[in-house]
């Protein structure tokens, strides 16, 4: 009888040990960071989804995203820093629930400039996925949770949720291409192009008046717009600026010494002689600009 009791105790002890081992094998590694564990779990979910949907998706080793191109354009332009990308997208959870999308039916593509701060307008995962596609291409991007993503952690898209993006890249345009498109659209193709990339077109001439000189204080009326037509600054009464001293952007220093008192001109300029890769609110980074300027006086 005593032997039977001892056997039962031993059997219960072995069962408890086995249960503890099983629980520990299923429990997360206590040394594994939460973000790392969630990303690993996301990877498993994505792989299962790829198999379920029979998607020809491959992992990009640099970004960690999974890409299945549904339309390829081998000769398409690849977006690089400074390029404007126009695109359509639909963002879904892997259970099919749509989280976000561009205005596809209204034919209003979303726009982003590569290398510019996202400013909350586009998720980190979508931004990275866009750079895996060329102009004209379409693709499915599957993305694990990204702790830098600025649009997760809500009721529709809880934190640590993997997502699917269906993306169509409408266009990829360099600054030079954007400027050329603008000149054609505005009928400014006769503008002179200088070595810096400045486009200069005199719209009102006073050939008998004095040329503006470096070092002079010049009173200028002006209006500045982005190439999409949005006005960011204007002065209809005239403001005084010193020319050739760095008090104005390089494009103005270059353009104004081509002008005389009383003359008007339209200039279009790349960001390299404007506000550069950082921009200056409300002017975005890598923004090409257009100005209508009038020299009121120079002294």
Structure description:
Strands 1, 2, 3, 4, 5, 6 and 7 form a seven-stranded antiparallel beta sheet that branches. The chain has a six-stranded antiparallel beta sheet with strand order 8-9-12-13-10-11, with helices on one face. Helices cover 24% and strands 30% of the residues. By secondary structure, it is of the alpha+beta class. It starts with a helix and ends with a strand. It has helices at 2-26, 34-53, 124-130, 175-186, 250-256; strands at residues 58-59, 66-71, 84-93, 98-101, 110-113, 138-143, 163-173, 192-193, 199-204, 217-226, 231-242, 264-269, 289-298. It folds into two domains: 34-173, Chitinase A, domain 3, CATH 3.10.50.40; 176-298, Chitinase A, domain 3. The radius of gyration is 30 Å and the shape is elongated. The chain is built from five helices and 13 strands. The longest helix is centred in the N-terminal third of the chain and has 25 residues, at 2-26. Pfam families: FKBP_C. This is Peptidyl-prolyl cis-trans isomerase.
